[in-house]
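Hi R.,

As promised, here are both runs. First protein below:
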Amino acid sequence: MNAQPAPAGGEGYLDRSRLSRPEVIGMLSGLLLVISLWVPWFSTSANPNSKITSAGIGPSSSATAWETFPTLRWLLLLLGLAPFILAWIVARGHKLGWRPGEVTMILGMAGVVLVLGNGIIFGRPAPHIDISLDWGYWLALVACIGIVVAGYQRQATFGAGPKRPPGSV
């Protein structure tokens, strides 16, 4: 079996020269989002009734998103992979029916809504007694916003091109 060396100039299976700042911002944001799943999102006070049932912790403790949210953790983990998939698509030079970065931007927006919803909008985990947001929560929110920004920058730099109605090929 003879393996052919990759041509000079970065051309090969993955051409990293196609990657730009939005992909790097997106990948860093995705990595931060994944890391944020294992750092404290919520803290309980010394109040004996302050606990997080879903994470199984009591007073004067902290809980990660991984411990607290059985479904959300998988959604955020997949969201953290989205910028890496975008970078792979860009480096491969795949032809898409949409601007590269649009789907990543939309997924990042969904992540912002999910993080805000599971801490601020719908409140803290049950039973809601003396539970505060910890630094991991804010890290996840910033990471999701970074994914939105990276997706927006990538799709904006791709060029307008002809507009097509949704669902057309």
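And here is the second one, sequence first, then its structure tokens:
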Amino acid sequence: MSVQSTEKEAPWLMLAFSLTAKKASQRVEVWRLLQRYGAMALGNSGYLLPNLPSNRERFQWLSSMIRSHKGEASVVEVQGIDNLPRTELVKRFNEARAREYQALAEEAEKISSTVTETRRMAQFGRIRRRFQEIVTIDFFQSPAQRRFAELIARLESGGEKGQRTLRKGHSELRNYQGKVWVTRPRPGIDRSACAWLIRRFIDTKARFAFAEDGNAPEGAVPFDMFQGGFGHRGEDCSFETLRKEFRIRDARVVAIGEMVHDADLEDGKYGRKEAFGVDAILKGWAKTGIKDRELLERGTEMIEGLYQAIS
């Protein structure tokens, strides 16, 4: 492993340090702080974090603490690592956060089934606080973050029994015509694909609005929101939920669903890579500050292109 550096601002920070064998308790203290900061171990080379002001400050304080224990520590700006491309590093960070979300999800489900209502809500408050702690170090927005948010919202509102009731039957097209459909701001691949599906196969006169969870306009139909409406269900992304709910059997739509699923959830379920580029472009456009509505329109145009390209 070799570290590459240039004059361009480096995307990563690495903490390299050493403590003598006699400093076991201090070593454990440092390790716990690194875990709390979400740092990733790079073998014996050090620990890595994205180059953010908050992470730089954390590493600098940690370096000072290590030196106070008579150890050695350096914070290094890293442009790249020759045998670990950025995609692999991001994947590793996301996998680490996914494990933390999964452990929290198992704890939440256990609480939901074993304690009284009053204690359940109190315990969920603690779960949510821990969730927010993980979110602060979820530097690349792991897909597991959204899945956990949906899980805890479902458990708080009545658990799996209520969710099974919600899934029974199908929605009728006639009840969803000329509606305002609302989703979260800064739409990505799943929300853009949902909007395309809605306007092309469900509600040709659909209008779209944007709101944070809990602030949807009255009478609007939510999609890809954490609470209510047509969102992730089980292993399905929101696009798949809509397709199944409205019984859309077009083979090309099914294929689009597989592409969107893999790009959105990054679980490799279908082995489809076609929508990864669309997702990356949408994320890039989102950083330019264009308005949500224009971002959504651009996304739906790209999904239409994918649809037409499928033979």
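A quick note on the second one: Confidence is low (pLDDT under 50) at residues 159-169. Let me know what you think.

Best,
J.
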